[in-house]
Design brief:
alpha/beta, Rossmann fold, seven-stranded parallel β-sheet, three-stranded antiparallel β-sheet, about 30% helix, binds 2-amino-2-deoxy-6-O-phosphono-alpha-D-glucopyranose
Length: about 260
């Protein structure tokens, strides 16, 4: 895993956006796996700005979101579908029919999850999976204990995740307890992964992800098995990394031709 420590989330978001932009220029029909949450907001801002400046054309890009709350329709103000429209899709030119987000109102959730996996396969697989990390080490909504081979399915959230996300809802009681999420195995199938984590609340999860054992107790640690995964963290999120100096050294010596 490549670990890039940046002074703040701004540089990390710019870096992640440059990776996505380089992919889209090289492969106009690129398939992106996309996250929600507060972490990727800067990334979406950067891509939208590049699009506004005419630097990237996303008309042939396809997207697959990692997760969605069960019980919330696409118009619900807290649904991830709504988040994606507000923060990204309304600002770029991705064709509506190429946008995929799990349907939180699907009447038959197992069938919907299977169809979601099939749609990813039919699109040719995910070229770039962008991810955030939960403070308990979850990726997507794969909570601790998730099978490292899991595929898209229904999950029950931990109480900690419900608390972490409760500020998005009027009261904690209104926060959904169930979600549809790509599995850890689905995420590992992506050709490239870019993970971002910012702030001291993420420091323990980042250390477990990058330097802890590969374990279902910290689902993000499964990314150690991925052949091409870059983790971008700010100083606060990097605070518990034991080999931080080495990661800085590696990045400082990264050959120019390897930079996006
Ligand atoms: C949420 C999302 C994840 C996200 C993570 C971190 O619950 N399901 O996809 O990466 O938790 O959220 P945030 O970026 O707001 O810290």
């Amino acid at each position: 895993m490549e670990i890039i420590i940046t002074p703040s989330s701004v540089e990390a978001s710019e870096h992640a956006a440059r990776i996505a932009a380089a992919l889209i220029r090289a492969k106009p029909r690129a398939v992106l796996g996309l996250p929600t949450g507060s972490t990727p907001l800067g990334f979406y801002d950067q891509l939208a700005a590049m699009h506004a400046r005419g630097e990237i054309n996303l008309s042939e890009v396809a997207t697959f979101n990692v997760d969605e709350y069960v019980g919330l329709g696409p118009e619900h103000p807290r649904s991830y579908a709504r988040y994606m429209r507000e923060h990204f899709f309304s600002r770029v030119n991705i064709a509506n029919w190429r946008i995929h987000i799990p349907n939180g109102l699907a009447p038959d959730i197992p069938a919907h999850c299977e169809a979601y996996e099939a749609a990813i396969r039919e699109a040719g697989g995910i070229d770039l999976q962008v991810l955030g990390v939960g403070s308990n080490g979850h990726i997507g909504f794969n909570e601790p204990g998730s099978s490292l081979g899991s595929r898209t399915r229904l999950k029950t959230l931990t109480e900690q995740t419900i608390r972490d996300n409760a500020h998005f809802f009027e009261s904690p009681e209104q926060a959904p307890r169930h979600v549809i999420t790509m599995g850890v195995g689905t995420i590992l199938d992506a050709r490239r992964c870019v993970v971002m984590a910012f702030g001291k609340e993420k420091a323990a999860a980042v250390a477990a992800m990058a330097e802890g054992p590969v374990t279902a107790s910290a689902p993000a640690s499964a990314l150690q098995l991925h052949p091409w995964c870059s983790l971008m963290v700010d100083e606060a999120a990097a605070a518990k990394l034991k080999r931080a100096d080495y990661y800085r050294w590696v990045y400082a010596n990264k050959p120019e031709w390897q930079r996006p």
